[in-house]
Specification:
Elements (H helix, E strand, L loop, with lengths): L9 H6 L14 E7 L7 E8 L4 E6 L10 H9 L5 E6 L16 H15 L7 E6 L1 H12 L4 E7 L9 H11 L7 H12 L2 H5 L14 H13 L7 H13 L4 H11 L4 E6 L7 H13 L24 E5 L6 H4 L1 H21 L5
Parallel strand pairs: 3-4, 3-5, 5-6, 6-7, 7-8
Antiparallel strand pairs: 1-2, 2-4
Helix pairs in contact: 3-4, 5-6, 10-11
Protein name: Alpha/beta hydrolase-like protein
GO molecular function: hydrolase activity
Pfam family, one: Abhydrolase_1
């Protein structure tokens, strides 16, 4: 299909030959629904899949309104193409997908405890065993997880996330767009607004880069829109209640500079990576600088946080906590920069395993 100058409409997406293949049928080695949160409001059943059978245990934590399949590129790249090396755990956080959606106060700390229950169930309980990757709200959950079990973490990757939200314009705009998932007359406008908050215009306009089964979509943006339409045809997976409860958890998340310094000290600075784009409209770039400065220096907000702060020289100063601050990049770096992101993670994983060896940690 030839590229088009306009985004495909919702009705066109549903008729596209590739529409039914937007979610890949990646076969897990293990899957189920685990009752978690015993004694803290449970049981809450958390849907999960483990892909691959390698000795390196990767835990992928998705963000607000995202389901486990949203990691499918990374699931394929690590646990299917390298299944003898990696085992990848993907899950639906409480409130989304196939997991339970109880009406309760959600917090990132409680959601982190859900993950601990899950990795305990899998037997991933060794010292410095877990490679944690969290994006957006998932990065907030990952911070809480690191506070709970720092000695079990080999590496910690915090992607497009924050230690707390102090500039919420993009976050609230995306929340409002997605909270109206089921208003048919607004679908095309909603999807356009979500695209704008999550991705760069350049990537959206490029020809569909993803592996296809029948034929590619005209553009990357059209493929994303098709996936959004797929979510809208599965209302049992994405509910207003669950989405808003997750949003409350993200909105209330907060880690002070002192708490971040404690986290970095217990996990180990060289085991941590912060990834963020300077043009992120969902969680704006200053949040990444505050997060990195907290981990590296124990600083909180400095009063210099503003949208143009990427021009400040000290933003680009190196430290023991690795930073990947990408100029002109948006929120969903694992999709827009798939191969680069894979390389950054593999380098971090190797460093973490090397540190384990240096410290005599059995692997």
């Amino acid at each position: 299909m030839a590229a088009t100058s306009r985004p495909m409409a919702a009705t066109e997406l549903l008729d596209h030959a590739e529409y039914s293949h937007t979610v890949w049928p990646l076969e897990p080695a293990r899957s189920g629904k685990l009752p978690v949160a015993k004694g803290r409001g449970g049981p809450i059943h958390i849907a999960y899949e483990v892909h691959g059978h390698g000795s390196r245990h990767l835990v992928w934590i998705m963000g607000l309104g995202g389901m486990k399949y949203a990691w499918q590129r990374q699931t394929k790249d690590f646990a299917h193409l390298q299944g003898d090396r990696y085992s990848s755990l993907v899950l639906d956080n409480r409130g989304i997908g196939e997991s339970d959606k109880p009406f309760a106060r959600y917090t990132t700390s409680e959601m982190a405890r859900d993950v601990v229950d899950l990795v305990d169930h899998l037997g991933w309980t060794g010292k410095r065993e877990l490679h944690i990757i969290g994006i957006s709200m998932g990065g907030m959950i990952a911070q809480e997880l690191a506070m709970l079990v720092p000695d079990r973490i080999c590496t910690l990757s915090l992607v497009s996330t924050a230690s707390g939200l102090f500039n919420t314009s993009g976050f609230l705009e995306n929340l409002l767009n997605r909270a109206n998932l089921f208003i048919p007359k607004a679908i095309d406008q909603q999807i356009a607004a979500v695209k704008h908050n999550l991705y760069t215009e350049e990537w959206l306009a490029r020809p569909d880069e993803l592996e296809h089964v029948v034929e590619p979509f005209p553009t990357n943006g059209d493929r994303f829109a098709a996936n959004e339409m797929w979510k809208r045809t599965h209302p049992e997976y994405v509910t207003k209640k669950g989405f808003i409860l997750q949003a409350i958890a993200a909105g209330w998340h907060h880690k002070s500079g002192a708490q971040l310094a404690e986290l970095a000290q217990k996990v180990g600075k060289r085991r941590i990576m912060v990834v963020h784009g300077t043009k992120d409209r969902m969680i704006t770039f200053p949040h990444a600088v505050v997060l990195w400065r907290g981990l590296e220096h124990g600083q909180g907000k400095t009063g210099r946080e503003y949208l143009g702060m990427e021009v400040e020289d000290d933003v680009w100063v190196e430290g023991e906590v690795e930073k990947r601050f990408i100029k002109e990049q948006g929120h969903v770096i694992p999709i827009e920069m798939r191969k680069e992101f894979q390389g950054w993670l593999e380098t971090l994983f190797e460093r973490g395993e090397t540190i384990n060896g240096e410290k005599g940690v059995a692997t």
